[in-house]
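Quick one, T. Sequence first:
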Amino acid sequence: STSAPPTPPVMSSATPRTLAVGSWVNACREADDDDWELCQVLKVDTDALAVSLRFDGGYVASGVPLSRIRLPAGAGGGSGGAASASAGDKTDKLGLQLPIDDGYAAAVMVPSPPSAEAIAADPEAKYRYIDEYKAAGNALFKAEQYAWAIRTYTDAVDRLTRHCYPSRDRMLWDYLARGPCGQCYSNAALCALKLGDYAHAETLCEHAMECRPEDADLTKVLLRHGQSLLGQSHPSRALPLLERASSRDPSNRSVRQALTEAKKKIAAEAREIDARTFAHVDLTKHGLTSRRAAAAEGAKDRLGRGFGRLLEGADEAAAAILEPLLASKIAEGASGAPVRLQAAYGAGVAQYHLGRHAEADRSLQLFLETKGEMEAEGRDVEIPAMGLSLALFYAAHAAYSTGALPRARHLLTAYLRECAAAGPQPVLNMPDGWAGKKISEEDRKASRFRHRAASAEARADAHTMLALMGERVEGPAAAVGDALEAARLADLGGVLAQRLAARESLAKLYAVLGDAAAEKEQLAAGDQVRGEMKAKEAERVEKERKEEEEKQDREQL
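Structure tokens:
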């Protein structure tokens, strides 16, 4: 067994009456064990001076003598209430405070995880474990014990990962495990919706999507995610999720209702935008032309403010301005194309920065479609100052993240072609008036976005995505060319973590292809990068040490 933590203070004067059901104490699972673990009191027997304890993973020890219990460090020799308080920082994997004295531990029986030996003998044991744990959550849901059900569902995934897999990523790679794990998160999200905790439901749906649900499970997650956003008054964010759910199951009544609600709320927001736009137009003095001019001026003002917040890095604020503008009448039809082009670009960039890839995918698609329509009509197209390359890269990665691989591949090719045509993008750090040019602060900020979008690092990421898609669709041999180019660009970019990842990916490809010499070469290149990383870390530590010494010297003076 592993070495025990520092021994906590002995509970010298305690009696069973000083412990409450739900208190947290330290104990060993077996009488001859030296591993002290934090565990929870399930039952107190005042006659036998013993307690029943639940350990991590669900293991229950009955009839544990009081002499074999110690309070957690810092709890002293006080009451069971103090023991409970000392465990008050115990949280589940989503960072949510777990109730301690709510009776959960005594009332809910969950399965114990299979041992490593049991899994080795029967690999199906871990799948039975998550199914049994999920069943416990289902029973709580049916009993309308929604808070307990959430706790059980999330604990199920956490403990399966902790006890049966080396990492969460490895669990997510296991098709037979991630299915029930996604169902646990989805069911927990439904419980949160029942409780009106929409922000929590949104987080749970995001975790469910990490499990890559399929078929009816995916429709449920999309619906619940959309409902969580509607509950937070974000109909524009909910719409693409609900539309996707509707396309998968057009006859689903709940999906239809939620989709109708989202559309009504978006229409109401658009009407409010229009009303504010025309609020100060006096039609007794101005004709229809003036009204249209006022609308255009109002849209221009909103675009300016939206892009201003975007350049400042205030993505939430930018999205709050640009999303309603995109959904308003001002952005409709041929006359609204210029506004639609700009608003879709800005909203898509903000959504991408916020990690809302499905919405970014939709907005940036609309930007590119509008751009194509305007160009086909021979109209002037004004690309926002942050550049076309940025939009193409974000659109490609958003499509890749949402599983639209053919479109992602097409967009990445267009992105690389645009980078080659535009060439290197300098950062405009020169002062205003340099070489007779007027350079505003907005110009400088936008130039940084263009520079990053065209950088070797970004292009390396693009080739990495192409390599991954090539391997998935056509096999490892098809991925080598893009993987080699990703490694070359990563070396140019100089980001050590990216350089290492590129070399490790190439080594894996060559190993699959049976090219031992090439694999060895890439492993050696990876080792060289690790050496550089180690040296850089040593330099950082040394620099911090010197700075601390200088600070102490100044304080002494």
